[in-house]
Structure formats: structure tokens, C-alpha cells
Batch of 2 targets.
Target 1
Amino acid sequence: MRVPLSWLKDFAPIEAETAALVDAFNELGLVVDGVTEIDAVDESVVVARVLQTREHPDADKVQLVDVDAGGEQLQIVCGAFNFGPGDLVPVARTGTTLPNGLTIERRQVRGQWSEGMLCSAAELGLSDDHSGILVLAVDAEPGVPLRKALAMEPDVVFELDVTPNRPDAMSVIGVARDLAAKLDVPFSLPDVPELPSGDSPASITVKAKDMSPRFTGLVLEGVSVRPSPAWLARRLTLAGMRPINNVVDVSNYVMLELGQPNHPYDLSRLPGGGLLVRRGKQNETVTTLDDVPRAVGPDDCLICDAEGAPVGIGGVMGGASSEISETTTTVLLETAYFDPMSIARTARRLGLRTEASARFERGVDYGGIERAVARFIALIEEVAGAHPVGGLTDVSGKLPKPARPVVRTRRVNEILGTALTGDDVRRYLEPIGFECAPARGGWRVTIPSWRPDSELEVDVIEEVARHHGYSNIPRTVPLSPEVGRLTPYQRDRRRVREILSGAGLSEAWTTAFLGPVDLEKAGLSTEAVHVHNPLDHAEPLLRPSMLPGMLRAVATNARHQNPDVRLFEVGRVFAPPPAGDVLPTEREMIAVALAGADAAEAVRVWDVLCGTLRLERVTAEASERPGMHPTRAARLRASGEEVGEIGEVDPDVLSAYEIEGRVGWFAVDLQRLLAAPRRPTVFHPVSRFPASDIDLAFVVDDSTPAAAVEDCLRESGGELLVDVRLFDVFRGPQLGEGKRSLAYRLRFNALDHTLTDEEVGEVRARCIDAVQASLPATLRG
Amino acid sequence: MRDELEQVTSEGVARVRAATNLEELRAAEQELLGKRSPLATFNQRLGSLPVEERKEAGRRANEARSALQAAIEECRLALAKDDRRRRLEAERLDLTEVIPGRGRGHLHLVTQTRDELEDLFIGMGYQVAEGPEAEDDWHNFEALNMPPAHPARSMWDTIYLDLGEPESVLLRTHTSPVQIRVMQSQAPPIYAVMPGRCYRYETPDPRHLAVFNQIEGLVVDKGITFGDLAGTIETFTNGYFGPGIHSRLRPSYFPFTEPSAEFEVTCIFCEGAGCRVCSQTGWIELGGCGMVHPNVLRSGGIDPEEWTGFAFGFGIDRLAQIRHQVDDMRDFLVNDIRFIEQF
């Protein structure tokens, strides 16, 4: 909302400096997005009378104009032809600097002297009308400065960001009322004439009273459509609207000033001589003022001619067929109140936000319609010579009732932390139209019709707070009765991140949205939760896996000559809801992608993670997994429950993502993993006696997992076996096809004595026997 | 005899000093002090001397032995020192020629920011609560005082999922639904922050992401006031940004709070003087806050006459962007290691 200071001053004697006004607006919650200082037109732009126009002897796109600039005759070369002898026009005399920075000098144009410049409205900063010289419709003597003739003063325009709860602040009077109260100066509404009475010559029928609870019509005759006078055009321009003609401009002026959108129709172009308000029909189309045909339906309120043909979408936009034109002489003025919810729905569905819909969907002042109509009458008489015929036709349905909450002074202070008295509360409320009547413990407050957002006691408390000033409320800090801390899960999740980053991995944040192609390329099923309105039509799925996103990140880095990034991500994946549920299943995952590294490296990172988290009984069983290398992948289980997968990404998947080399990978359900049993943090005595190390190598089939050998060794080693470590893997022709040698170092130790050679020999033999007996393995001699 | 001993001593010391390594020194020691050394021979001859001379000669012989031993010891120390110097010199390593190891990885800047924010509120006695990213309409809108078709819903452009009734399941547009879940799952007093990922149907640009991270705070207790809200925001601001940075609140509108406010902090670059970052205002807008609307407390099963509360929320990514001067927020999602490793 752009509000010129001069307009605010029509309703309140505002004297404060611009900076103080910006502060006041901000404190009111009418946040100032911008301030434009408007300079007055230079004194040396004066009113001049055209004496005669002559052809330029050597040019046909310009003419010579003789003007009387107040006892002095000037010859001016001018490129516009929209005026004639007797007209009053503005002339910028030599030495003038125009708002656009141009300085006027005496100069020759094709051999003819030009002693000034005739100006358009745009050149004077009055509007953006470039169409010709501004012909002045004022009673002024030649030589009088233009700013005096048009009563133009320097101005300041505030651009306010109005929140959706403040319909009143979508009007100059609403802003002035709030500001006057804040500055403690009086506020007055514009003076308006009394409304005429009598039967209206136009018929008004409202069939959709739920959508349009109040609808009025007034006929005005003797309209002379022409450009608006400069003062009117100037105000609209400053407020950010384009002047069109005097009728449309008055309509907009009333909307900006009073916040009441209204619509003038050319009555002669309304078949049946009136209006009918109804719901749209299935498959109905309305062509709006912007010449766009729009599909409407039963949820939209249509304004139709008396024969039922649509002429506009109620509260959103009028139609082209009954638009005001130069030939209009009789106007039917619509001034109505539309249901905010239905306007919001229609505007949203049509993607059509207009000045009118922005106001109606916030809720206009249904009690201010008479004032708006009277203001329209006064202005249209002044600028278009029109007068009303008959009275106002007023069709009302069920209008909202003003709320009347009791506002308890104690409650005000309880919510705000202030020590206000009842009188303080009233002092803040009454200047903004909230009437206070005594009630037990405070006031019964009648909410004004222009503040439909305010309804409850707490809403009124906000008004008190705004006018008291948020910055005047003393600051305190409440004390939590509890110790703040992360949950065990949250702590562990942070540790996971620390462990992985300590292991040299960096954290990625990959996209939540994928396309079916991304999943297919990654060898994954495309079964996933569908987004109804995807941001990118190529990505309509919520990720069921982190693999595609991580591969994309690896590929991005490879393209930037970093082919060996080690990345992890902690994030959620989504699956369709289980039967009977509405919300999708969300699982928090850790995914690790090691570019340029193999499955063994993934296992090493995984071991660090499990070791640090003291996870027990975590196993990896070879398994074929979608998207993973078929012979280098395993299913991860913690205490028997599947928690994820580990290995390498399938080479075909990598080439689909244009990644060279191997990518080590694991992805684990973090919640399940962290729920698995942990090795207790209980002291385990260490021996004071020397340990005995022995090495054992077994020749084992490739199909026998090393983990099985290790498990067997641990089991048979018993208490004396304190450590088993695989230190060498060897394959060679002497071992035979499909076999390898696994060499382990076993450390034996007793708590209470040094082990004898016999004891070590015994347990060594037990280990060898157990491995050879339970597995297809032989001790390597 | 006396001359003989002096000669043995002086020659012996010279012999010791001539040793260039410990091996030669050991040979010299053997030669000068061993069983066949001149001193040993001299001692054997002592018995044949008259008693009156014997004592004097013995003393002199001991002196000579001590002198030689001292010289040997001195020389041994010097040689050992030399030897050590030579040995270690051969091990000399240029510590700037080391081939770097892999080094530590980096947490995402947004994670670091989130952790820091969480820790700050944990220090103030808050818990950290979380909720689902896919939500139902009730938690995301209706329970937050936005019944169906409420115009304020248009403040959040929503991404819906094709599940259940049309527009009934969505990706949460803010972390506020977690407020409701917390209130439903625990009785007041509540002191909690709720960080998490949110989604909006918006075209990403340098200052906005469609998928972004927010942190929300909720306090519900007896006698909680707007002054408590303002004081808590100020404490957070000083704690996070430093003592010179302050906060201010100005009226705003959110359906779930009443009174509502925007909160701004002193521009961290110009400290309030006015600069390009803060558009010359001296303030940077950070987030929204307010007193929890009575209808929202009721949605959470809490009696608004007995308990009052405040809530606040702001963007974690936006905060990280401002603080670390990241030009384009979309870089957070590219996962270029050259970006990640800067933090």
C-alpha cells in the first residue's frame, strides 16, 4: 500500500518528520518497505496560454507555438499537437530543471529558436501520461507558477507492507486513524454529503446473498467522461495507480481513500438495465476487463446484467462489456460487501489478485458503504458533472456482527507483562474506534466494523500492545524448571556425524525430490510417495532412498575434478503409508558414499562407526541389493534385525550417473541402528601378566565368509582369547582355484598368571580343531 | 719413578683424547687401565719398594689412575654426544615435505548452525523436539488457528502429497505443527525448540529455498508474558551474535500467535550504523514470534486460562547465510566439496 503523506494530512494534522513517521509506522506493524520523497515542480514551470500554432518551415514532426507566459510572449518548438489557441498549458522556462533531470535551455531546432518547453504530465512527474502536452483544466492567469495553480506541494510516499489481518490499513483513512492515535493527534473522516433517496431506475437482484451479503446500486446521470483533473491524477499516481478517466479514477480514489472497492458500469451497456448477482454455473466463462476468458463455477460469485449474462467476477474483476467509455453518460455504481472466504477461494483458484480482491478477502468495512457511495457522488459531481438519480438500492443478507469481547485489565497485564490500568487500556483503544463500556474487571469492547480480524479478548490485547508500543514492554526471561538436554537418540545422532566427519567424510544435503528416471538410473523401484504439485514436473516423487541424491553429489564433484569425495548425509526417506495410515512412513537414514573407494573401505568406515557406538552383534551377510554391486554387497543386521546395506554401488548404476571408478556405500536406518544393544560401559580388568601371541592361517573357500572363521575362533578360544585380528589375505595358484588363505593373529592372556606353553598349545589346538571341524577350512602348514 | 708416572699420565691422556670413536676409546682404556697396562705393572712393583716410599708411590699411582679415568669419562661423553648427533642427523626430516593425510571431514554449514542454536537453547533449559516432515492438514494449518479456506493459509504456498483426500496430506510448510505434537504429548511446563526441514511451493532464489530448515521455540508455563518473549529473544540474540547485537520486536500477523511480532536484530555487519546488507536500516529481519493463540493452546489440549505461552521461529539456512555471507542459498544443496570444506 503506497500512501502519500499529503493524503494522510487530509484526515489528521500530522507534523512529524519523515524518520519519526517511519518509526511510528514500524511500531504499529505497518512496516515501511520504502519511502519516496517527491519534490515539487520547479517555480519556473508556469501556466501559459497558447496564442497561435504555426508550421515549422523545415520540419513536419514539430510545430511552432506562440504562448503568453504572463506578459511575455515566447516562441516554443513543440512535438505535440493535442492543443490549440486559447488552451492553458504548462511551460518550463529556460533554466528549469525537470524531475527527470533535464535542464531547459534556449536552443535552436532546425533553425528556429525555442524559448522553453511545453510539458506533458509525465515530464512534470504528475503521472506517467506521455500522450501529449498537459492541457490544464484550471482557472489560472498566465505566468502563475504551475505548483500554485494546481496546489501541488512536496510530498512523501510511504510504501507500507500491510499484513493480511489489516483490511483497514488498505485505505488512507485506516492508516491515518492508526497513525493519528500513535502520534496522539485528532483524526477525522472525510466530509460527505447526505445520500439521496427515492427509487432507483436500475434493478438490483441478489441471488447469492451468502457470497454477497450486502450489495448496493446507485445511478448517476450527466456523466462527462474525460481525463481527470491534475490533482486527482496526481494522487492516484503517487499511490501507484494509473489514471484512466475521471469516472474510473474516482472509483479508484474512493477505494484507496476509504478501502471500499466499487465498480462503475455504463448503464446503457447493461441489457435489462440493472444487475443480478448469482453463483457461476458449471463450465461458465467470463471475459474479464483484461480480455482474458476465465472459467468459473458454482464457487464463484458472478455479477450479471439483469438478463443474467455475466459482466464480471464479483469482488475480483469487472468485465469488458459494460466498461466505462468516452460515450458513457449514465453510470450504475456497484458498492458491495463480499464474503472474504469466497473471494479468497476465487482469487486463488483463478490466480487473479486485484486491488479489489486483496481488500475483499481481508474483509472490507460493511458499515462504511454509505460513506463510500456519498464520497463517490461528491467527487463525480466535481470532476464529471454527474448527479445521482433516485436513491441507493441496498440489498442486505446476513452480515457479520461486531464482536463485543470483555477485555480484563488483569488479563492484559498477564499476557503482556505490563502494569497498565483500565484507563490506560481505554486510552489506547478508543482513538482507533474500539469502544469501551465498563464491564467487570475491565471493558466490554465493541470491535469496529473495519476490524473484522479482531474478535477475541486476546486480539484486543494486541491492539493495546501495539499502541502502548512493543518496545515499552519490560523484558524478562522465564526460567525453565528442567535441565535442557538432547535425548539419547539426538546425542547419538550428533555422535554419528562427529564420527563420520572424524573419519574424513563431509556432510551433504541432497534433494528430497526425485524423478522416476533418477530411481531407474539407480536401479531402484519407482514405488514412492507422489507429490501432487511438484516444483519441477520432472521430480514428482519423495525420495525413497538416498542413493540417487548422493550419486548426483558424487557426480557433481567429479565434474569439478574432485573424483574422490567421501560424503555422508543424515536425512529422511519416505515410503507410502502402511494400510490404515494417512501419513507416509518416514525413516531417518545415514548414507555414506565413498567415491573412488571400494566396499572394503566402506566396511572400514562402518566398523569405526559401530565400534565407537559400542554396537554389538552387527553382522553383514552377502546379499544382492537393488542398485548395488551384485557380488560386493551385504545386508546389515543388528541383533538380527535388518538395519541397512553395505558394499559398493553397481557399476552400471555408476555409469548411468556418469561416475568413473568405484563408489563404496552404506545406508542404514538410524533409528533401528541406535536401538540395537550396546556393549555396556563396565570396567573389564586387564591382565598384569604377559600375553602370548600366535598366528594361524587357514585355507578357506571363497564362499566361506571370513566372519565365520573369526566367529569360530572366538567361540573356541574362550576366556583366554583376548583378541583376534585378520592380518593377511592371500590368493595364489598353490592354494587352488576359489580358495584363499586367511591369517589371524590370536592373543591369549590370563588375568591371574602367565600362560604356560602347554596352556597356549592346548587352546591353539582347540581353535584349529574347531575351525577345521565346523568349516570347510584347513590349517595352512 | 715420579717422572715415569707423569709420563704415563700425560701420554695416556693424549692417547685417550686421540680416540675418534667409542671403539678406539675402549681400546685405549684397555691399554691404559687394563691388567697389562703400565699402571698395573707399576702397582705390581710397589711391593718391592721400601715402606716409606711405598705409601707415597701408591698415592701417586692412584692419582694417575684417577686422572686417566677422568679423561676417559670426559672423552666418552663427548664421543657419545657426537655419535648421537651423527645418528640423528641422518634421520633429519623436513616437516614441510610431509604428504598430507586424508584429514577430517566437514559438517554441513546448516548442521553446524543448527547444533549451535540447539546448544544455546539447551543452555537455557530447553528440550529439542522433532516431528514428521509429511504432515496432515490439521497439524499444519487447522490446529494452528487456520480453519479450511482461512485466507492466511495463502501465506504459505504448500506442496501436497497424493495421499488420502485431496490436499489432506502435505509437506509441512513450517515447524509449527511440532508445537501441537509437543503440547499433545507432554503436560506444561514446556520449554522446547523444534528444528527441522520444511517445504514450500516456491521457486528457489538466492535468498529462498523450497526445501529449507527452520527452528521454532515454544514455551508454555504459568504466567508467561510478552515481556518474557522479548527478553528470551534478546538473550538468544546476545548469546548467539555477541553482546553488541540487540533485538527489537514490531507488530506483525501470524494466525497462531496473538499478539504477533516480527523480530529483528542489529545488523551484524555495520552494528546498526546502516550498510548494504541491512538496506541502511541497521536491522536485519530474522523471524516471527508472538504469544501462543488461545485456540492453538486448546488444539494442544492446554487450558489457555491456566497456562500462557510464547513461540518464535526463524530460518536456520537464512541465519547461516547472513552470518557467513553466502551469496546464494541454493549452494547449500549443491554439495560441492569446495563449498562444504570452507566451514
Target 2
Amino acid sequence: MIVLQEIRNLLRLYAQQFKTTFASMVQYRASLFIWMISQVLEPLVYLIVWSTVSNSSGGSVGGYTAQGFAAYYLALMLVNQFTYTWIMWEYEYRVRQGQLSFALLKPVHPIHSDIADNLSSKLITLPILAVVAAGLALIFHPTAAFNWWAGLAFIPAIILAFLVRFLLEWTLALSAFWTTRVNAINQVYFILMLFLAGQIAPLSLFPHWLQIVADILPFRWMLGFPVELVLSRLSPAQALLGLAAQSTWVFISLILIRLIWRAGVRVYSAVGA
Amino acid sequence: MTEPAIHLHELCKTYRVPERESGMRAALKSLFHRRMQDINAVDGLSFDLNPGEIVGFLGPNGAGKTTTLKMLSGLLHPTGGECMVLGSVPWKRERTFLRQITLVMGQRNQLVWDIPASDSFELNRVIYRLSPADFRRTLNELTELLELGPLLKKPVRNLSLGERMKCEIAAALLHRPQVVFLDEPTIGLDVTMQRRIRTFIAEYNRRSGATVLLTSHYMADVAALCKRVIVIHHGRLLFDGDLSGLVQQFTAHKTIIVQLEDCQASLHAYGEVLNCEDGRFTLRVPKAQTAQVTERLLADLPVIDLLVEDPPIEEVIDQVFTQETA
Amino acid sequence: MNTLRLLYIFFRVSVLNETAYRVNFFVQLFQSLLELGTALAGLAVIFSYTQSLGGWHPDEMLALVGVYFLVGGIISLVIQPGMSALIDSVRDGTLDFTLTKPEDAQLLVSIQRMAIWSLLDLLMGTGVLITALVLLGQTVGVGEAAQFIGMLLAGAVIVYSFWLILASLSFWFVRVENLLQIFQSMYQAGRWPISLYPGWLRFALTFVVPVAFATSVPAEALTGRLGGPTLLGAFGLAILLFAIARLIWRLGLRHYSGASA
């Protein structure tokens, strides 16, 4: 009974957060539009660059034709949008403005409203991006194989990818408790994401040793893996191993959150929230 | 007869603001048809300031003081009338004009926040093209008058509000302007600092002969510095003349202070009793009856001491403004 | 000329401002090096699969990266901070102080704030550029060098004018600070030659947000790809855009000071 009550409360919280998020998005339409430009432009640029390389190298590079790259990067654009967070900047802002005290006073763990805010805004941005992606598909003619089991496995894969990414980036956001140099930390993180999550190039294009590194680290599981999966570029065994890797990282990140959150709150209160 | 340093004639500034009622209907209607309202911030203002005068510019919030000051310093274009400062039309913003004026705004800083004030002064030196000799001479004089010595090397953000204001004033006067506009320069400062700045302004005016137009909410500023006050309300001139004249013209009452043995006696028959402490009664009587009431008090009661005073200036100004709104 | 003295004094103020925070230097150095490293690593990945990218060889791409950082450094050194400060000062009224000074207000607001540590990006970009020039060797003659300098200047004027127009919109509209972000969002596309992009994207990057003139065009000049029309067009656009920016600025000031339109 209590569990049901808890779930209902949580749902109400999420619904309320959606209204708040929606209202503030309407206010900041212009910055939203500009942000979405960069969300589209980055994968688009790589799409074009790699297509050029592929066309001038006899039609394909590393198993990707120009159309293959188009499929990859358009899928990447959408998956990225689904798993994306900006929580590191949120916490830097909150600590700087001293707003964290409010979050600490509430009886609910702040991660819930953060997740709710994140998902709520995507309810608005994802459809828009999907339309843009459809438009780009008409221009760039993506092609990909499709099979049913990969499509089905994609659903848990993308949910796990979101969880891994959100939980780990949320933990990273807590670094704001200890330093103001959040920008520098974020930059290192984004560079790792750029190379090891399959953004600058599909991971299969990297030398073998780098691919192993990418398998050990969590970045591939946040972004590249679901993309490769939905494009049917993985064998069933690889897909299953991937889902297992994602689950492991969710587990690891939950432990990390527990530890670092407690330590962070101690530091924050010691300084005088 | 010298040219006035500042000359205004029927100066007007009207703003058009959208007028809207609250509520959803009105909000939607305003998308299609916006009703505009004209607000006369300054409405036919005329006065002249002679070189070297220090004039107080008084008025309640929204009276049009800051708007007028902005028009005089060239920041705003008037909607009507004419205005000349040092022979130039301000809003043409000619270089020669800008080099001769300065504007100090009490609530805003022009000094760069993280560096010592002396470095901000350097900035002004280059902008105003001051020769190193002139600059040094003026700076030394200002440092002495404002007691800036230890403050100059500290980053501005480390200075207290009063210290910052002194540096702001110094920065504004480095180029020895002939016309100084001061918009609430002592706001937020403690009493000692206010007094110091007042002393400085008076001394600076005496030494340099600069014309000073000062707005302030603090009557002490005006009383100490300005022989002449200009009072405006709703953008219109209410009074232009001596401060004592202002009191004369606008007050209907005088205050009589009577010292008796104790507070036992009832003096309601003589006038409005404001308060009593240790036998010292404060009475308010209509101006015309002052002599009469004084006579009666002296005749009827064992008066130890008696004093006839004008009501405090704040009260007068208060009366002036409430009168006008009434 | 007093303009130069003004430039020097504002530069000096910015240096004094920043050196109050020494750690920033090292942090900025770290971040700039990371950015450069990323760009070069990206190039390495691409060129492990091909010898030429849309006709551009590795040394030529290196030159493009150099220009990208050089111009990016100029923008983040003086253009972005000044225009951002302009928008703030319109909003909080401190623009009034600038307007009572006996110098051209446009000049003052343009140089009023500098992010000194962006000099690192500028130096880095120059370093990469010089490296690229050494590698390119004889293929860069006096003609190309002259065209390069010319296009760099034209590009700087075009980018500055674009930013000024955007910032001047704050005289009429309120929440304009986000608008400045649009250039930075699209600037990343300047790391690759504009000729790679489809027509509509090329158009957007040239005439909507002038990223092409900041990076590709100077790099094309250096690598001998610049056609006469583009050269003349860039100069023409620089003059035109500067004039338009000046006009919009003056109109904005008149609006700010309530002059009748």
C-alpha cells in the first residue's frame, strides 16, 4: 500500500514538474531554438564530413557508406537528445546562487525533480528534433538494415542508456560542491564523450585497442551502443553483452551517487549552507 | 550679465507607455490593439542657473528630476522646449560639451569593479585626454579634499559604500568639468560620510567655480549646500528660490516650543499639542495666529522659556507634495 | 591617435582585472590545450581513412584549424565580452556613463571589456598556423599571404559587425543575450571547409551567420583556393555590413535616448 502511495506521489511530482518546465521553456523560446541548432549541427557536420570521406574512398569506410553514415548520425542525434542532460551546469548554478539549501530542505531526494525536469523538456524537444531529423533524412537518404529483435532490444537499451548517462552525469554534477572549476571538468567529460561514445566517429572505425577502452568505460553504453543496436549493426550476443554492461553501469552509478551525495552534503553543510 | 550656465525653457519630455488592464481578456486584446498613454515626465520646465551656483533639485520620486538631469547631460532627447548647457545643445553630444560636464549617479558605479580606483582614474585620464601634469595636479587636490589616500590602491570591490562613493566622485571630477550633475550622491551613506561629501562639494564649488545641480532626498544635503532650490512635481516647476522662501511660501504653520514646570497643564486651547516632555510642550499654530498665541501664552502661563520655529524642512516639503497631489 | 591609446588603456584594465585571478590563467591554458588537442585528434581520425577531405590535404586542414582558433581567439578576446557587456549595460542603465564620455560610444562599448586569457587561443592558433605554413612550404607565396591577411581582416570586420547588429537589438528587445549564442553554436561548423556542406547549409553559414568569412575564406586564401569574386565579395560585404552595423547602432542610440524616429 505504501509503495503504491509512494509511486502515486512520485507521479504527481513528475506531472507538476512538467508544467513548471513547460512554462519556463515557453519563456526561453529563443535560447531553446538556438540550443537546438547546435544539437542538430554537431552530428550533421560529422555526417557530412564522413560522407565525404566515404565517397572519396570508393564508396564506403569501415563498413559505412555515405547513406550508412547518414543513418548513423541521424540516429545518434535522436538518441543523444533522449539521453542528454545539462545537470552539471544546473548544479554549478545552484551552488553558486546558494539555492541548494532549498533542495536539501525538501523531503524528496532532489534527483527526482531533476529527472522529471529533464524528461519533461524532452517531451517537447524530441518531437521537434524528430521532425528535423525526418527533413534531413529526405536530404541525405539514410539506409540501414532493420530486424525485429534489434528493434525490440532497442527499448531497454535506450532506457538503460538514459539511466547510465543521467546517473553518472548527476554524480559528476556534485563536483560543484567541491570546486568552482566545473567548466574545466565538464570539458574533459565532453571530450571523452566525443571520442568514446561514438560521436566523432562510429566506434567501429577506431583501432581495436581503443574500442576495448570504450567497452570498459561507460560512455559507449550511454550513447553509441543503442545507436549501433537500432541500426542492426550488432550480433545478438553483442547486444546481450551490451545490455549487461549497461545494467552493470547503472548499478555502479547508484552506489557512486549514494557515496558522493552524502559526502557532498557534508561538505556543503560544513561550509554553511 | 553673464550667460547662464544652464538654461531651460518650457522643456518637455513625454513618454508613450502601453496601457493595459489586468486579466486574460485584456492581455489578448492588447495583442491586436494597444492603447497608448502619454506620461508627461517633464512638463514645461523653465529655469536658469548661473555659473558657480549650487542648486538643489527637489521633488518626490517620479517628479521628473532624473529625467531632467538626463536631458541636461545629453542622455535623453526632450519632446519639446529648449535647453542649453554651457552654450551647447546637450543631446547633440558634442565632444566639447561632454568634456565640460560630469554626471554622478548615486546608485550606479562607473568604476571598474575588480581593480584599484587609481587604475579606473587612468582610464578617464585617457578618455578625457588629460595631460599627465594636469591629471596629477587634479588628482592630488581631489585626494586631499576627499581623503582618498589609502583607498586608491584597493580594488573597488573591497571598499565600503562610502569609500566607493568618494572614489566615484573623484573619478567624475578628474577632468575639471564646469557643470556637475549629482543624482542622489549621498544615498545609502552613513551620516558622517554624508557630511564629508557635503563639505567636499561646497569646497569644490568654491575652488573651481563649477555649477552644481544636485538632487537629493536628504534635506540635510540641500539645507547645507544650496542657497537656491528648485522644486518640481509632476514634471512642473513648483518653486524656484531661497530655501527659506520655500518654507515661508508653503508652510501654513509655525511651531511654538513652550517650557513649563511640567506637563500638567492643558494647552489645547492655544493650538495643536504635538507632544510634551518634562514640561516642554511642542505646539503647532497657524502662521497668522503666531503672535497672538505667543502673547496669550506669555500672559496666561508661568512660561520658563518660549521659542518660535519654522516646522522642519522635511515636513514642509511633505506638505508641498501632498498639497499638490490633493 | 587617441583610439590606439584607448585600446591600450582598456587592454591594460582587462589585464589588471584578470591578473587578480591567477589561477584562471592555468585553467584557461588547460582548456585551450584540450580544445586544440581534440581538434587535432579529430583530424587524425579522419585522415587515417583518407588522404584528402573534399580536396583539402592534411596540411591545409591544419591551416584551417589554425585560423579557426586564431579567429575564435579574437572573438572571445574582445568581440564577445564587449557585446555581452553592451547588452547588460543597456539593461541596467550603465550605458549612460559611456554616453557622457567625450569619445565615440560605439568605440567605447566595443573595447570596454576584454577576456585576456583568450590571448592563449590566439597564440595557439597562430602557432598551428605557422606550423601549417612550414608544412605547406612553397605553395604559399606572397600573393596568397596577402590575400590571407586581407581576408582575415575582412572576416574580423564582418564578424564584429554581425555581433554588433545582434547586440544593438537590445535597444528594442529585452532578452537578447541568448541571441549572441547563435554565433558560437554555429561556429563549430567552421572547423571544416565550407565546400563540404550542401548548398543550403553553405548559404546559412555565409549569409545568415557569417562563420564562413571567419574561418573558411581566409583558409581558402592561404591555400590558393580563393576566387576573385569571393575576394571582392568579402571586402564588399565587410564594408557594407560595417556600415549597416553603424547605422543600426546609431538608430539604437537614438531610440535609447528617446529621440523622435
